[in-house]
Automatic annotation (TrEMBL):
Species for this entry: Gossypium raimondii
GO cellular component term of the entry, any: endoplasmic reticulum membrane
InterPro entries attached to this UniProt entry: Reticulon, Reticulon-like
GO process terms (BP): response to bacterium
Keywords: Endoplasmic reticulum, Membrane, Transmembrane, Transmembrane helix
Lineage of origin: Eukaryota, Viridiplantae, Streptophyta, Embryophyta, Tracheophyta
Region (Disordered): 18-40
Domain of life: Eukaryota
Subcellular localization, as worded in the UniProt entry: Endoplasmic reticulum membrane
Protein name: Reticulon-like protein
Length: 152
C-alpha cells in the first residue's frame, strides 16, 4: 500500500514540475537537440502567475492610474496615499463633514483671492482676472414669482 502512495506522490510531483517547467516530461527524457524547443518559441510564450492572459498593468488600464496602483511612480503613489489618509482622518476620526469642508475651502479661496488682488498693487503684478457674472433680471423675477405663487 505504501508503494502505491509513493508512486502517487511521485506522479503528483512530476505533474507539478511539468506545469512549472512548461514542458511535458513524459514525451522524452533524452537531451538531444532535436527534442528541445527553439529559443524563439520559448521567448514568445511568457509564463504568468495564476495563468493570466494579460499583464496586471494592462488590467488596471495601462496608463498613469496603473502606474499609481502598482507603485511605479513612487512620489505620486505616496502622495495619493497621503491624501487618502488625510481624507480618512478628517472624515472618520475627526468626524468632519463634507459640506463643512467645502465651505471652509471656498472661504479660504475667497480670502486668498482678496489678499492676492490687494497685494498685486504693492508688488506691481497684475491682479487675478475674475470673470464677471451677470444674471439676467427676467428669469430671476419669474423664478421668484413662481416661488411666491406656489407658497400661497
Amino acid at each position: 500500500m505504501s508503494d502505491h502512495e509513493d508512486k502517487h506522490e511521485e506522479s503528483l510531483l512530476e505533474k507539478i514540475s511539468e506545469k512549472v517547467k512548461g514542458h511535458d516530461l513524459s514525451s522524452s527524457s533524452s537531451d538531444s537537440d532535436d527534442d528541445k524547443p527553439s529559443e524563439s518559441s520559448m521567448k514568445a510564450k511568457v509564463f504568468r502567475l495564476f495563468g493570466r492572459e494579460r499583464p496586471v498593468h494592462d488590467v488596471f488600464g495601462g496608463g498613469k492610474q496603473a502606474d499609481i496602483f502598482l507603485w511605479r511612480n513612487k512620489k505620486i503613489s505616496a502622495g495619493a496615499l497621503g491624501v487618502a489618509t488625510v481624507i480618512w482622518v478628517l472624515f472618520e476620526l475627526l468626524e468632519y463633514h463634507l459640506l463643512t469642508l467645502v465651505c471652509h475651502l471656498l472661504i479660504l479661496a475667497l480670502a486668498l483671492l482678496f489678499l492676492w488682488s490687494n497685494a498685486a498693487t504693492f508688488i506691481h503684478k497684475s491682479p487675478p482676472r475674475i470673470p464677471e457674472v451677470q444674471i439676467p433680471k427676467d428669469p430671476v423675477l419669474e423664478f421668484a414669482q413662481a416661488l411666491r405663487s406656489s407658497s400661497l
